[in-house]
Amino acid sequence: MNYNWEQAIAARGKAMEWSPWAQRELPPPPVPPIQLTGGIPDPASLPIDDLIACNERVLRREGTFALMYGGPQGYGGLREWLASDANRREALATGPEHFVLTCGSAGGLENICEAFLDPGDVAIIERPSFPGSVRTIMSCLPELAGVPVDEDGLSVDALEAVLARLDTEGKRAKILYTIANFHNPAAATLSLERRQRIVELCRARNILIIQDDAYGRIGFDETAPPSLYALAGGSGAVLLGTFSKTLATGLRLGWVMGEKPVIDAITRMRFDMGVSPWASRVVAEFCESGRFDAHVERVTAIYRRKRDAMAAALDERCAKFARWSVPKGGFFLWLELGEGIDPRRLVETANEEAVQYVGGRPFFDDRSGDHFVRLCYSNVAEADIPEAIMRFGRALERAVR
Q: Which residue in 250, 259, 181, 192 sits closest to 214, CA to CA?
């Protein structure tokens, strides 16, 4: 495609203006702040000893191959495990050829956009959505069409209205990007009925569905509905996965699951030289030994306790200032501030009370969302959650207009 680098750089710069990391400078808080910000795993839960043991076994068994360059599709052993895991959980019939290993799910999204999205194409995104993903999509210079998210996920009625408008304008959307399970930031899970309707709408218009499932394994109360890939019969949909939220962010290891022509196109178009064969083999060893499922079960219990602690503290301290729904999984609670709260003042009072959060504005490409707040419970110590919400409650009280 004809790529305009100046426009791409400008698009990334525009996106960074509403990045959660582009916060204005504030005076230092009086005491060390409690951070409810980054969506990263609980530090104490990292399986360091198991990974050390897996690493030693890999290097002693196949060190020469592990320390060489790998192919663009990634280590076959890990792709075989991913296929077996997907088949077991969703009754699919995938093989390693349906997977490509990527630099996290973010790298997978970038590979997909480079393969399928051209300047001027229409990309449908959710409002709100993860800013990093939106920046990646924007870098390919598409026209963005936003669809709101409510407690049941992406609004299909609103999606139909967007598609009808595009039809009237003579345009066709190329991709639809959705975080269907335990949404970041909205914490919603897309209902089965909505998933089925989305598959039907996108199949009729030949729109590629991209489901980002970074948090899909961190479910608390029930099994999430089938993936959009499964509901689509493996055609017209891809699923992004990652070990960053279940194992460790530093692995930078994810994958795309899709039908073979899609995987082949991604593999041909990628320019990042693939992922580490060494890290891929270590993770494969960890997974094949049976440790992965046990680890996910253990950390899910940790995050369930943290969610419950934060929800209980919010009920006690913040109910008159905001409203929220208790998430069924993932790392976040998503708060809608009451009309009496001044969002700009809240930034200052939270800093003064020494508690950090991410405001809603960065998650909306149209720069709305000032009246929302994302609180993350995954990385904060469970014992610190009541104090963190006490501080946040005081900040809310002081931010009343």
A: 181
* Residues comprising the chain, all counted: 401
Number of domains within the chain: 2
Does residue 76 sit in helix, strand or coil? helix
Beta carbons of 299 and 292 less than 8 angstroms apart: no
pLDDT in tens, the chain (401 residues): 455 656 655 655 555 554 544 455 677 777 899 999 999 999 999 999 999 999 999 999 999 999 999 889 999 999 999 999 999 999 999 999 999 999 999 999 999 999 999 999 999 999 999 999 999 999 999 999 999 999 999 999 999 999 999 999 999 999 999 999 999 999 999 999 999 999 999 999 999 999 999 999 999 987 789 999 999 999 999 999 999 999 999 999 999 999 999 999 999 998 888 999 999 999 999 999 999 999 999 999 999 999 999 999 999 999 999 999 999 999 999 999 999 999 999 999 999 999 999 999 999 999 999 999 999 999 999 999 999 999 999 999 999 98
- In sequence order, what are the beta bridge partners of 197? none
Assign residue 361 the CATH number of its domain: 3.90.1150.10
Q: What is the DSSP letter of 63?
A: H
Q: Say if residue 284 is in the same domain as residue 330.
A: no
CATH code for the domain of 250: 3.40.640.10
pTM: 0.93
Vertex 279: Cα angle to 213 and 285 (nearest 5): 85
> Does 2 fall in a domain?
no
